[in-house]
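The records we work with from here on pair a chain with its fold. The integers have meaning only within a learned vocabulary of local backbone shapes. A complete example follows; check for yourself that the lines match position by position.

:::
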Amino acid sequence: MSDLKPSEIVKELDKYIIGQDKAKRSVAVALRNRWRRQQVPEELRDEIAPKNIILIGPTGVGKTEIARRLSKLTDSPFSKVEASKFTEVGYVGRDVESMVRDLVELTLNICKIRAQEGVQDKAWQIAEERMLDLLLPKSGTQAPARSEGSKEVQFELVTPGSDETSSTREKLRSMLRKGKLDNRYVDLDVTDRSMPMVEIFSNVGMEEMGINFKDMLGGLLPKNIKRRRLKVPEALKMLAQEEAQDLVDMEKVVKEAIARVEQSGIIFLDEIDKIAGKNGTHGPDVSREGVQRDLLPIVEGSTVTTKYGPVKTDHILFIGSGAFHTVKPADLIPELQGRLVKPADLIPELQGRFPIRVELDSLGQPEFIRILTEPRNALLLQYMALLRTEGMEVVFEDDAVSEIARMAEEVNDRTENIGARRLHTLMERLLEDILFDAPDMKTQRIVIDKTYVDARLKDIKDNEDLSRYIL
């Protein structure tokens, strides 16, 4: 992150997201400010709060993708939550603090996997020694001959600690590394790590109970050890996994995970407009204003208790997103027409915690053409790669791409505007027959032109009822 300037962050985002320059600039500046905060004197560092962002725009214009790509770009802990899933504390539903706990859990798993990868070499060495112990005959016994392909493997009776034992062990090690024992079976005691399912019905959710039931039951219940007969490579891999888990210092991993969450975590609050209060409603609304008031201390900075310890939210970057003003007035009852939800309908305290507001542009035909062809993960490239696995080369003519984009824009205008997601439904409908028949087709090259697109999609597009349900 220290090497990325805001302009470079925008360039990286441009590889996957078309347009939305204002939103890209805002998140790039917010990210760079994190690095800048680390460079200021320590006494001032904790005083600099992140500038949270609200992305305003209809569905399918790239709000979530911008946040997700940003987290991948900087390797930041990232969690996406739906604001509409939360309710006010005391009611059935998830409490807002669970989003921080989920982020800690995700980050811990990532840190744990990386820590295990760091000790993989040592784990394999220990696993190899354990495997040799399993393969060598015990004291005073004769190892039976085992089938190994077309050869017979026979180990003579040896005295433990003697030169013969050492020599046999090294010969066995050489055979193991060369793969000559891959068809041999060993008996391995495996600990069953699965835990019984525990369901708790409570009005506050399991997170609030403050007890990690899995850890508690894990200490009380006896370990379930199963003896399994496995081939040598599979057993060696399982032994290496066990050793890697034992070698990892979990205290260090937990500290690292909490530090990463606190300093570089990103929480994406989707559908934040669903918890904005509408004028004209009466009485308490546990899924709107109540949630906002519960969300306020998390966003402005507080300490959340998790099973791994307290986590401060002061420097977590919150990115909210919602359609807000894009609700069609005609879709509302007469009493609510003219009272559409806007960012200003959030409670004033919460508005102040999202100082940066960016309106994303709606997508039309020019943007759809670019989305189909330009990004590294462009939709046309995905379908071409999928059909290439069947030995088929599919070519899209420019007029076909333009027609698909035009139809997507037209269907969005006539039905629901779902942005770039409309391209997915059109492409599936367009290539449905080819995708189905591809394994049996002898044709090696198919050209998709405007005529083909019209033939496949014109009837559906022209019939408004069909296009509403099929496209």
